[in-house]
Design a protein that fits this description.
single chain, alpha/beta, 8-stranded mixed sheet, 17 helices, about 20% strand
């Protein structure tokens, strides 16, 4: 290998990697050669590595963090995951069983709205039949890592990617050169793989930080290990421009997250101010969050970032997916589900096109088609923040939800709310967004002469509007 040429390629920004270090590392350890390298051993990367291995490829995983099965890496920033239809379908395709999935989740059948000392439940499905699931990232990721181990996939932990060269097809990790034929980047919102594509001609990148941020605390279990509040719902304390949410954990605790403008966090910086803020805004949380002050002052502030980019591939050598390609804010509970669905969609393109022409056409078609949907769920996630902070506690919103339930029962094959399309079907996100706009227009027409609380809609007019504007849905709800 021409190490002098390699150092020029690496560039001045990595001068810490001297010629001597490269020579030393690679003389004593021959350069590994993996047909396929997946960067990121999170949920998406591990699921992808498993499916590629099952397709017959020799795959290696590289992960910058330690093995979460033996070391806690949450550091007070977890944002519990909401697993729903799209993610479950992908996990089943990867090889997990329904029993394995069910063993690590807690079903959440509704939102529980905490308003003025009262509780109000809002079902996630119009017929109360469906639910989303609270799951700890570490539990689900561990199942996938175990499956990868069973398949013999080499997983290199503590192996941050320091350089990517898609043209010469190598990466540098821990001072060593690793060659590849195909590189898949599933290394998160701050992807090293995506960073290597920034100077690629015609590569477009948008990275937008929200002026809102988040911080986590916890509600511990009772002495007997039980949950202190209802454990079959997602709890929301809406406050107009900010909110507190709580998701149940298997150990009887709740992960509680405050989302609010960052300047509020800057102001709540003493024990007295923490207690004052929570006693005013969330008084029912104070008695049950035993370590409220300590956790709030010690845990880090998390940022919220939306990433959009295109294309997702660099020729036939590199493809990014998951948060590396389309990081979104967490307010629709679709970040993980969308990332896992990327794997499903990629393999559908592989089935359609085949590998006879190589990876290039597959990467290009997948990137172009999938970006339309991921842009839509990014937009809907922002909108859902407003819904959770504000609308869920509004009488007008609740009334329209009641009318929506009537229409769903009357016209079950055509009228389905946006949330159900997104969370309980595999309908493309772009189609769900289009149908949501039509639904709102129909509701506007049906309610324009009614007062809030009046459920006496004109069902004949409803049928005419729905037949004119909505096609039948050929999807399974689950």
């Amino acid at each position: 290998m021409d190490y002098k040429k390699l150092l020029v390629g690496v560039g001045c920004a990595t001068t810490a990697f001297t010629f001597y270090q490269f020579w030393k590392n690679n003389k004593s350890n021959p350069v590994p050669n993996y047909p396929v390298v997946v960067v990121g051993a999170g949920l998406v990367g591990t699921a992808l590595a498993i499916r590629l291995t099952e397709l017959g490829f020799s795959v290696a995983l590289f992960e910058s963090r330690p093995d979460m099965r033996v070391q806690d890496i949450s550091a007070g920033k977890s944002i519990n995951l909401a697993l729903s239809h799209r993610g479950i379908e992908s996990l089943l395709e990867v090889g997990l069983t329904r029993d394995q999935i069910d063993s690590i989740v807690l079903p959440m059948k509704s939102r529980c709205i905490h308003k003025d000392g009262e509780l109000h439940h809002q079902s996630y499905s119009h017929d109360n039949a469906l639910h989303i699931n609270s799951v700890g990232r570490e539990h689900l990721n561990s199942l996938l890592l175990d499956l990868a181990d069973d398949l013999g996939i080499p997983i290199h932990f503590n192996s941050k990617i320091q350089h990517v060269d898609a043209r010469e097809k190598y990466i540098i990790s821990r001072g060593r050169i690793i060659r590849f034929e195909q590189l898949f980047g599933a290394d998160g919102a701050f992807s090293s793989t995506r960073k290597s594509m920034v100077n690629m001609p015609y590569f477009n990148l948008s990275q937008q930080y929200s002026d809102h941020a988040y911080k986590e605390i916890s509600i511990p279990p009772t002495e007997s290990g039980e949950h202190k509040i209802e454990n079959n719902c997602l709890h929301i304390w809406p406050k107009g421009t900010y909110m507190l949410i709580a998701l149940p954990n298997l150990d009887g605790s709740f992960t509680v997250t405050l989302f609010c403008p960052k300047n509020i966090f800057d102001e709540i910086n003493t024990e007295e101010k923490v207690l004052e803020f929570f006693n005013i805004n969330f008084p029912d949380v104070v008695p049950i969050a035993d370590n409220l002050v300590e956790e709030f002052l010690q845990n880090p502030i998390g940022s919220l970032c939306t990433v959009k980019c295109s294309p997702w591939n660099n020729g036939n050598a590199t493809l990014i997916l998951g948060d590396a390609a389309h990081a979104i804010v967490p307010f629709f509970g679709q970040g993980m589900n969308c990332g896992l669905e990327d794997v499903t969609k990629l393999f559908k393109v592989i089935e359609e096109i085949g590998l006879d022409e190589g990876w290039g056409p597959i990467f290009e078609q997948f990137s172009a088609q999938r970006k339309v949907d991921t842009d839509c769920i990014a937009n809907m996630s922002h909108d859902n923040y407003i819904e959770m902070c504000n609308r869920v506690a509004d009488d007008h919103y609740v009334w329209r939800k009641q009318i929506t339930a009537i229409l769903c029962k009357q016209f079950p094959t055509k009228f389905l709310p946006r949330y159900e399309c997104v969370s309980f079907t595999s309908l493309p996100y772009s189609e769900a967004e289009k149908r949501a706009v039509i639904n709102e227009n129909i509701l506007d027409e049906l309610t324009k002469d009614l007062v809030v609380g009046d459920l006496g809609i004109d069902l004949q007019l409803a049928q005419e509007l729905i037949d004119q504007n909505l096609k039948e849905l050929d999807v399974d709800r689950s």
